[in-house]
Amino acid sequence: MAKVYSSTVVVWKPGGLEKVTHMKALAFLHVAGGQLTAEAKIRCPVDLGRLRSSITYQVDSEKLSMRYGSNVEYAWYQENGTSRGVPARRYLRGALEAKKEGLMKLWKFT
User: Fold this and answer.
1) Beta-strand pair 10-12/56-60
2) How far is 71 from 93, CA to CA, in rounded Å?
3) Which residue of 21, 30, 40, 89 is most buried, as measured by CB atoms within 10 A?
4) Domain residues for 48?
5) Number of domains the chain contains
6) Alpha-carbon distance 9 to 6, whole Å?
7) Over 50: is that where the pLDDT of 12 sits?
8) pLDDT interval class at 31 (50, 70, 90)
């Protein structure tokens, strides 16, 4: 259902997209992207706010998929931690876990 890639981007592909219209699927992906992005911004560690302000999402209308995350160079290390003692701060995965149940309920009504 969700995969985390090394660039700290999560791709959400709910099952059954083919059972609804393309427009409804896109609308769902935009709602999911907005909710996940907002939750990740709440959960992310903040020093100067660069990481928080960089978190965004993109919907691919051809593949019917959504990706969210950050493109700052240290985002992956904040999400996964380092061998030098920086602990993992699961702001992306934590957002997905926090919102997953509500998004699955929303998907059923799409």
Assistant:
1) unpaired
2) 16
3) 40
4) 2-108
5) 1
6) 7
7) no
8) very high
User: From CA 50, how far away is CA 85, in angstroms rounded?
Assistant: 21
- Residues facing residue 56 across a β-bridge: 69
**Residue whose tokens read 């309920």:** 105
> What pTM was computed for the model?
0.79
Q: What is the 3-state secondary structure (H, E, C) of the chain?
A: CEEECCCCCEEECCCCHHHCCHHHHHHHHHHHHHHHHHHHHHHCCCCCCHHHHHCEEEEECCCCEEEEECCCCCHHHHHHCCCCCCCCCCHHHHHHHHHHHHHHHHHHCC
The residue length of the chain stands at: 110
Residue 26: predicted pLDDT: 84
pLDDT digits 0-9 by tens, 46-104? 989 999 999 999 999 878 889 999 999 999 999 999 999 989 999 999 999 999 999 98
